[in-house]
Specification:
The structure is a single chain. By secondary structure, the protein is of the alpha/beta class. It folds into 3 domains: 289 residues, TIM Barrel; 109 residues, no CATH class; 118 residues, Alpha-isopropylmalate synthase LeuA, regulatory domain (Double Stranded RNA Binding Domain). The strands form 3 sheets. The chain has an 8-stranded parallel β-sheet with strand order 1-8-7-6-5-4-3-2, with helices on both faces.
Length: 594
């Protein structure tokens, strides 16, 4: 190499053949085309690679519409309302609440917002509609009377395959269809105070850049976008199909070339088909996007919408206020899991049960030393540890920021023990304990082994487990129960509960099941149980199968666990509630004795 010559970097397609010993796979990769070649934007001087994120975007959770459409069992009104209230509670100010022309449930939920005070006045309500006259009219009917600001979000697919295969329209015909929809929106809603408009060229990321720009400029002209009444242009990666830099190029092209840029709020809606939805959203923000649509924890069609909780906490980890309160992440997770009936993975960024836990000995040692150094700095400077710059190895943020305790991190040297305990209980008795229950049980086992110094067998573990989570106490018991459906269709549960030897018979009408009936009744008898989560498991096969219920409930010192077994999942669930009531009564007795 000549003196002072720079080494040549290999291109992305270069392969170090001397070291590469991989063999061609039998997969038919030749059937697919490089998306970048089809949607490449005109060459330009890219600005986004040198940009830096400095503030949070406008967040728009779409769990109630896009996320709800992706559920095998869509949310009922009660779960939809609970999720909406969570979004409001933690700080979201713009929420897409439904597709009112597509289902009566969604229409009724929008009317609930119009006719009640569940939406604070500073929260903007977004409703979704295709560019079809009758559906636009019904959508506008759903929002009449809403006192909140409202965004009417109209969409049409614009990518070539969708135009040709799904819609059967040419570019000109599709442009005319979109313009007709925009005129219908103006006709039905143009005179409504507090209403703004949004347009999504669905599958924007696979649409020709010149056509996407043409359509978006036409619609901002039709809707007369101004800085005082901006139009939202939402540019979705409806099916993620290229590397994130391609999406960033597409967003920057729109950002720099839109005719009325100062009258546009530029929004993105990434999906996660390639597993890079978060990266696409972050690069899109660098490229000029001001608003991000997605789902808390990433629910959505196929592999999901972009995870806006991860996006927000990524900002937090860089010293940028996400403007959303994630300080009780476990409450948020429990609520989302309850409403969507989808579990959050143990390794999910920030919120998973294991994301602050190290199993590797080298990681454990580094984390312990990091905690010690952090505390030493606090002592030396007089600055509270919670206010010091965070720099603990392997922990990108302080678990306490999310309302997490340090127990699982500080006691990492016992994590392998937790795994062994869980393995023995599952292999010997078929008990597949939830991860948080495994961690809690290890504490009981540790107390036992510290006291005896002896090895614990599988049967010894089962005895510790039963004593801790399914205590026997004839002074509080469920003697009988039965559910029935009355002539009027209402469901009722008959209960006989023994408290201190006295039988209490109750007939409880309910809509949510015998577990709710039992918790209501126990509350009236001075034994309240607040259920946080309930995990059910069958043990065995066929008619001989038993059921076990793992119940997480609220206690004054934090979440606790109780377990019940039975011949049915309902029976096991009721037994778990009784176990929780017994544990709570025992805890109150101990507290009273002290």
């Amino acid at each position: 190499m000549p003196k002072n010559a720079m080494p040549q970097h290999p291109t992305s397609s270069a392969r170090p053949d001397r070291w590469n010993r991989q063999q061609p796979s039998p997969m038919p990769s030749h059937r697919y085309r490089d998306v970048h070649a089809r949607v490449e934007v005109p060459a330009s001087d890219r600005h986004w690679p040198s940009a830096r994120l400095e503030h949070a975007p406008i967040w728009v959770p779409v769990d109630l519409r896009d996320g709800n459409q992706a559920l095998a069992e869509p949310m009922d009104p009660a779960r939809k309302r609970r999720l909406f209230e969570l979004m409001v509670q933690i700080g979201y100010k713009e929420i897409e609440v439904g597709y009112p022309s597509a289902s009566q449930t969604d229409y009724d939920f929008v009317r609930l917002i119009a006719e009640s005070d569940i939406a604070p006045p500073d929260v903007t309500i977004v409703v979704f509609t295709p560019a079809r006259r009758d559906l636009i009219e019904r959508t506008v009917a759903s929002i009449r009377g809403i006192r909140n600001p409202v965004v009417i979000h109209m969409y049409t697919a614009t990518a070539p395959v969708w135009r040709g295969v799904v819609l059967g329209r040419s570019r000109g015909e599709l442009a005319a269809l979109i313009d007709a929809g925009a005129r219908d929106v103006l006709e039905f809603a143009g005179d409504l105070d507090g209403v703004r408009f949004q347009f999504s060229p669905e599958v924007f990321n696979l649409t020709e850049p010149d056509f996407a720009l043409e359509i978006c400029d036409a619609i901002t002209t039709r809707w007369d976008a101004t800085p005082d009444r901006p139009v939202i242009l939402n540019l979705p990666a409806t099916v993620e199909a290229a590397t994130p830099n391609v999406y960033a190029d597409q967003i920057e092209h729109m950002h720099r070339n839109l005719a009325r840029r100062d009258a546009v709020i530029l929004s993105v809606h990434p999906h996660n088909d390639r597993g890079t939805g978060v990266a696409c959203a972050e690069l899109a923000m660098l490229a000029g996007a001001q608003r991000v649509e997605g789902c808390i924890f990433g629910n959505g069609e196929r592999t999901g919408n972009v995870d806006i909780a991860t996006l927000g906490l990524n900002l937090h980890a860089q010293g940028i206020d996400p403007m959303i309160d994630f300080s009780d992440i476990d409450h948020i997770r429990r609520t989302v899991e309850h409403c969507t009936r989808l579990p959050v993975h143990d390794r999910h960024p920030y919120v998973g049960d294991l994301v602050h836990t190290a199993f590797s000995g080298t990681h454990q040692d580094a984390i312990k030393k990091g905690f010690a150094e952090h505390q030493a700095r606090a002592t030396a400077t007089g600055v509270p540890a919670a206010d010091l710059e965070w720099r603990v190895p392997y922990l990108p943020i302080d678990p306490a920021d999310l309302g997490r305790s340090y127990d699982a991190v500080i006691r990492v040297n016992s994590q392998s023990g937790k795994g062994g305990i869980a393995y023995l209980l599952e292999s010997e008795f078929g008990l597949a304990l939830p991860r948080r229950l495994q961690i809690d049980l290890a504490r009981h086992v540790q107390l036992h082994t510290d006291g005896t110094g002896e090895e614990v067998t599988a049967h010894g573990l089962r005895a510790i487990f039963d004593a801790a989570y399914a205590p026997s106490d004839p002074a509080l018991a469920l003697a009988e129960w039965a559910s029935e459906r009355a002539d009027d269709g209402a469901e009722r549960t008959r209960l006989t509960i023994l408290v201190g030897g006295r039988a209490h018979d109750r007939l409880v009408a309910h809509s949510t099941g015998p577990v709710d009936a039992l918790t209501q009744t126990l509350g009236t008898l001075g034994h309240p149980v607040e259920v946080l989560s309930l995990t059910l498991q069958s043990i065995g096969r066929g008619s001989a199968a038993d059921a076990v219920a793992y119940l997480e409930y609220a206690a004054p010192t934090g979440p606790e666990w109780a377990v019940g077994t039975g011949s049915s999942t309902t029976g096991a669930s009721l037994a778990a509630v009784i176990s929780a009531a017994r544990r709570s009564a025992g805890a109150r007795a101990v507290a009273g004795a002290h």
